[in-house]
Design brief:
alpha+beta; about 300 residues; nine-stranded mixed beta sheet
């Protein structure tokens, strides 16, 4: 299985008898459904419902959790968690001795005729030797994470980014900036990053309203360019009008957060969608639960 260190990551530990209750009350992820051997996406939001910090969360020991996040904002993330902790009996620390590693099923194994066997094998591989299933990806992909000593790698961070792009898995820093995206924008409503049946958490009212009203219009889409894509942050345009922004880019492949209503209007009208002069085709990620709007026109907002 290809194995890589997926960019600059940090591991934050929250441990203590009140750790689960504390985190359940502030994070989007529903910890009641978090099983051992899983790494679930989640976020800490602003009161306005925008993502301030995104991460993968997993259980560690009897009363602890590990939050796998981008290294650059890890200090700010810990300070924000400390503000919300109040009198909860929970200790927040940076586990800088832990190395974050990812691995996944290679293409040849994934394409075997016996798909049931492939899925069973990948599940077993995820849970051995401390590997945790990354729930942002479909089970058959065998994508998993490990937190511990460094292990041998045979793939690069770019290879891991290509894997993310193929599955429409967005991450802050590369695909969106802190405070610029709602959980729905980056498909946390599809991948289990938001618990819609749990109690209140920071920003819950806004996220719940978007879910029940179906008002999410900005979404991650997979981008394929007619040639190599321009740099991340380049505007995606339809008929000369900006409809979104490129995120992760690897050659002609990438992700973008776009207005899906405007994508649909452009596609229906035969209007070219471009970024930096490169013609694009856009598709809904395979595991996403949204579809392009039907019988609607884009508003002017």
């Amino acid at each position: 299985m290809p194995t890589a260190q997926p960019g600059d990551r940090a591991a934050i530990l929250i441990e203590g008898p009140d750790a689960e209750h504390f985190l359940q009350n502030v994070l989007t992820a529903d910890l009641d459904g978090l099983a051992a051997g899983e790494a679930r996406p989640g976020a800490l939001l602003s009161p306005q419902g925008k993502i301030l910090f995104d991460f993968l969360i997993s259980r560690r020991g009897a009363d602890g959790f590990l939050l796998d996040c981008r290294a650059e904002p890890a200090g700010d993330f810990m300070r924000r968690l400390t503000l919300y902790r109040l009198r909860a009996k929970a200790v927040i620390s940076l586990a800088d001795q832990l190395v974050v590693t990812a691995r996944w099923q290679d293409d040849s194994a994934a394409s075997r005729d016996d798909s049931t066997t492939s899925q069973t094998d990948s599940t077993a591989l995820q849970t051995d030797s401390g590997w945790l299933a990354d729930l942002r990806f479909p089970q058959g992909s065998g994508v998993s994470r490990r937190y511990g000593d460094a292990v041998a790698t045979d793939a690069s961070p770019d290879d891991y980014d290509r894997l993310r792009i193929a599955h429409g898995v967005a991450e802050s820093g590369k695909d969106f900036a802190a405070g610029d995206a709602f959980p729905h924008d980056v498909l946390m409503d599809s991948n289990g990053g938001v618990g819609f049946r749990k109690g209140c958490y920071v920003g819950q009212e806004v996220v719940s309203r978007m879910q029940h009203r179906g008002t999410a219009r900005r979404r991650v889409m997979i981008v394929k360019g007619a040639g190599d894509l321009p740099a991340s942050g380049t505007e995606v345009e339809a008929g000369g009008r900006a409809i979104g922004t490129l995120g992760s880019v690897c050659g002609p492949d990438g992700l973008a957060i776009v207005r899906i209503d405007r994508v649909k209007v452009a596609q229906d009208g035969g209007v070219s969608i471009t970024a930096g002069g490169v013609a694009l085709s856009l598709s809904v990620p395979p595991s996403a639960t949204y579809t392009l709007p039907q019988g609607e026109t884009a508003d002017e907002r």
